[in-house]
Design a protein that fits this description.
Elements lengths: L43 H8 L6 E6 L2 E6 L30 E9 L12 E6 L5 E5 L3 H12 L5 E5 L9 H4 L4 H10 L3 E3 L9 H9 L20 E3 L3 E4 L2 E2 L4 E6 L2 E9 L16 E2 L2 H14 L4 E7 L25 H8 L4 E5 L6 E6 L2 E6 L5 E10 L5 E10 L8 H18 L2 E5 L14 H14 L9 E4 L11 E4 H7 L5 E8 H9 L12 E2 L3 E6 L14 E2 L2 E2 L5 E7 H4 L6 H4 L2 E8 H12 L14 E4 L1
Parallel strand pairs: 3-6, 6-7, 7-8, 12-14, 14-15, 15-17, 21-28, 25-30
Antiparallel strand pairs: 1-2, 3-18, 4-5, 9-10, 9-13, 11-12, 16-17, 18-19, 20-22, 21-24, 23-28, 23-29, 25-26, 26-27
């Protein structure tokens, strides 16, 4: 497994100051004991719940259905030479040692949970079959996730559970309908300690995110589950999200102490968060450079006597397709992963020992520039078990090892978490199962070579129809962003739950005025100097052609841009509809923000429901649209 190199030691102390005060309360939950009574147990997790935390340097073990405390053996650091640090006892005197010279700390990490309380559809690759095919296993589901966290926690009393962003946002109906309160409540039960904010934490704006921390009912919808919302018992961290000079939206870091040794957890999101959320949701906030933010904090932490530093950041890397969860293979230097996390790891001060990452929804286990760098896929399918050995003398990380553990479903579900999920399922089921339309074949998010998708076209068509009447906007064309679509719509009947899962953000439609020249600029912006491409999905009647080999900025043939067959004039004005994320300049399309005469409209999911009801029936399901609106030229 990966092993990090020790860091040098500096002394100093200064009390930490947090901008958002509040007591941290560890989430506790009850387990189902499968018929066992009295003091009987099934595993170490049962012992911890029944008996409480074990004594220092011990761990609970379930033997013969009875709870026993066993000593935790912590190996001394191995310097690789016989000239290492002598032990603390008197050599050759026969006097016993003063005790262990190191402390064992366990960090359990995950990322990009996205409110996935129920079992996700995806599988985790575990190997290759004899015939060369992939071997995969079902993984995830919060009730199983809770059991795996509890079992791992029981192996070490010095455990911290952290998440690297996107805990909430872009969530399925079960959590999203209730503004992700169910996910926060589930994580309270599981005992999550710290979460770095991700870009999706800002989907409903910073004020709503603050409510996630402090609690209280939603200002518009109230408490939809019929009771109050206590808020998160875990702590959000946002080191690089500034609200003013030397002020941040949430604390920059959290320092924990284990047997006299301090460990700092710095939490933050990617600097580019404003480009991937509704601009109004991050108004008044400044997202600072990740590397500069951490490196500026290192001296402050060292003055507090902190030598062990863990960065929990919502930024990630890309491994090679088909990599296993504990590999680090990729297209980067030395055959390792590529992506933004690599440069970030290399730029961070060597005082940083571990980087818990996310954002890309990938699994990897790396050592980059001497730092352990991990990611645990997404949706609670993996948990990264990071084991640290800390020197009591210096506070340094002597050794750091990581292991991505698959959240299998062959373990007992946690009863309290299961009850929570069941309660919300009962609340959401009537609405989720309501049939709103029919489709003749599966509508897919997957695009063709020109960037077209059947689902994207249907959604754009629904947005156009909802805003086409003169009193609702007078729209002539609508554009949909591919990132706003989260799931296919399967052939056959379409339920409200499916439609919500496809567009889980609750965006409203905005109709605005752009000139023909601005529409051309909008289309050219789909290709970025960085090499990235983000193709907009236009509504029916809007057509154009582009050349993939032409220079960026000159790929669209202006004469080919047409609305209902009529060429678009550069000087004429047109009414254009987009969701409020795009309309505010999201996804790197600032031209939308220049639009005038803006008029708000329906919620995007309501527009899709109305469109399906108007254009489909059981006898005559909606056909998939032809992929003929964008023409790819040589």
């Amino acid at each position: 497994m990966p092993q990090a190199t020790p860091r040098s030691s500096l002394q100093g102390a200064r009390p930490s100051v947090f901008l958002l005060a509040g007591a941290f309360v560890t989430g506790m939950f009850l387990f189902v004991h499968g018929g066992c009574g009295g003091d009987e147990c099934q595993d170490a997790a049962d012992c911890r719940e029944d008996k409480g935390p074990p004594a220092s340097n011990t761990a609970w073990v379930c033997e013969d259905k009875r709870c026993e405390q066993h000593s935790v053996q912590v190996p001394p650091p191995d310097s690789g030479t016989d000239a290492g640090t002598p032990d603390s006892g008197m050599p050759d005197s026969g006097t016993p040692d003063a005790g262990p010279t190191t402390v064992s700390v366990q960090v359990l990490a995950f990322n990009d949970f996205h409110g996935q309380l129920e079992e996700p559809a995806g599988q985790i690759l575990t190997g290759v079959a004899p015939d060369g095919g992939p071997v995969r296993v079902n993984a995830g589901g919060v009730t199983y996730f809770a059991r795996h966290i509890a079992a791992l926690r029981a192996t070490n009393p010095n455990t911290v559970v952290v998440a690297a962003g996107d805990l909430i946002g872009a969530s399925p109906l079960l959590s999203g309908l209730f503004h992700d309160e169910p996910t926060v409540e589930a994580m309270n039960l599981i005992g999550l300690d710290l979460v770095a904010v991700g870009n999706h934490e800002f989907d409903e704006g910073s004020t709503e995110l603050l409510r996630m921390q402090s609690g209280g009912c939603h200002p518009v919808d109230g408490c939809l589950d019929g009771d109050g919302f206590p808020g998160a018992k875990f702590k959000f961290l946002a080191a690089n999200v500034a609200t003013g000079v030397d002020r941040t939206l949430f604390p920059r870091y959290d320092v924990r102490e284990f047997e006299g040794v301090k460990v700092a957890f710095i939490g933050m999101t990617l600097e580019d968060t404003p480009e991937s959320v509704i601009p109004t949701g991050v108004a008044g906030l400044t997202f600072k450079d990740e590397v500069q933010t951490v490196n500026a904090l290192v001296p402050e932490l060292r003055r507090q006597g902190v030598e062990a530093i863990i960065v929990v950041v919502h930024q990630g890397g890309i491994p090679t397709s088909g990599s296993l969860v504990n590999e680090c293979k990729g297209a980067g230097a030395d055959g390792l992963i590529s992506g933004a996390i690599v440069g970030l790891a290399k730029g961070l001060n060597d005082a940083v020992d571990v980087i818990v990452s996310g954002h890309t929804h990938q699994a990897y286990n790396c050592v980059i520039d001497g730092k352990v760098v991990t990611s645990a896929s997404s949706m609670g399918q993996l948990v990264t078990d990071i084991d640290l050995t800390l020197s009591k003398a210096t506070g340094d990380v002597v050794e750091a090892r990581a292991n991505n553990v698959i959240v299998t479903r062959d373990v007992q579900e946690v009863g309290a978490v299961k009850e929570l999920v069941t309660r919300y399922q009962e609340l959401v089921t009537p609405r989720a199962n309501r049939v709103i339309g029919w489709v003749s074949q599966t509508l897919r998010t997957q695009t063709d070579s020109a960037g077209q998708s059947t689902l994207g076209f249907v959604i754009a068509d629904s947005h156009l129809e909802a805003t086409k009447p003169a009193n609702l906007g007078g729209a002539q064309v609508a554009f949909m962003n591919p990132g706003g679509m989260r799931a296919n719509i399967a052939q056959g009947e379409v339920t409200y739950g499916e439609a919500f899962t496809t567009q889980p953000f609750g965006n409203s439609l905005v109709t605005l005025t752009l000139t023909g020249a601005q529409i051309e600029q909008l289309l050219e912006r789909q290709w970025r100097p960085s090499g990235a491409t983000l193709m907009l999905l236009p509504s029916a009647g809007f057509t154009y052609a582009f050349s993939a080999s032409a220079p960026i900025g000159s790929r669209v043939d202006p004469a080919s841009i047409r609305i209902n067959g009529v060429p678009v004039s550069p000087t004429a004005e047109y009414r254009v509809t987009a969701n409020n994320y795009l309309a505010s300049g999201g996804d790197g399309f600032p031209v939308f923000a220049e639009g005038t005469n803006r008029l708000g409209g329906a919620v995007d999911s309501d527009a899709l429901e109305a469109y399906l009801k108007a254009h489909s029936s059981m006898a005559s399901p909606l056909p998939a649209p032809a992929l003929n609106r964008i023409t790819l030229l040589p």
